[in-house]
Amino acid sequence: MIKRLFNALPGPLAARILQSLVIVAVLLTALFFFYEWLGSTFLDTGGGFE
After folding, report:
1. 8-39: per-residue pLDDT in tens?
2. Contact 11, 22 (CB under 8 A)
3. How far is 31 from 13, CA to CA, in rounded Å?
4. Is pTM beyond 0.70 here?
5. SS3 27
6. How far apart are CA 3 and CA 22, in angstroms?
7. Using CA of residue 24, residue 10, residue 12, residue 3, what is the dihedral sign?
8. Could you report how far apart the first and last alpha carbons of the chain are, in Å?
9. What is the number of other CB atoms lying within 10 angstroms of the CB of residue 48?
10. What is the DSSP-derived secondary structure letter of residue 10?
11. Alpha carbon distance 20, 5 (integer Å)
12. Residue 14: helix, strand or coil by DSSP?
């Protein structure tokens, strides 16, 4: 599946590598912010009652 997606990218090999690196960086950044939102919204922050 990943090979098929990589081969579907336009341009020469160097351009496809650069495009895939940018796509992976964007997806990892989005995943990080999603986990941060998920943790701050639904999980306990660890603080106690005062």
Report:
1. 999 999 999 999 999 999 999 999 999 999 98
2. no
3. 27
4. yes
5. helix
6. 16
7. positive
8. 52
9. 4
10. -
11. 9
12. helix
Q: Beta-carbon neighbour count of residue 50 at 10 Å? A: 3
Look at the block and give the residue holding tokens 């964007």: 26
Amino acid residing at 8 = A
**Residue 11 CB neighbour total at 10 angstroms:** 10
How far is Cα 24 from Cα 22, in angstroms, rounded to an integer?
5
Alpha-carbon gap, residue 17 to 6, rounded angstroms: 8
Tokens for 30? 């989005």
Only one residue has tokens 């660890």, namely: 46
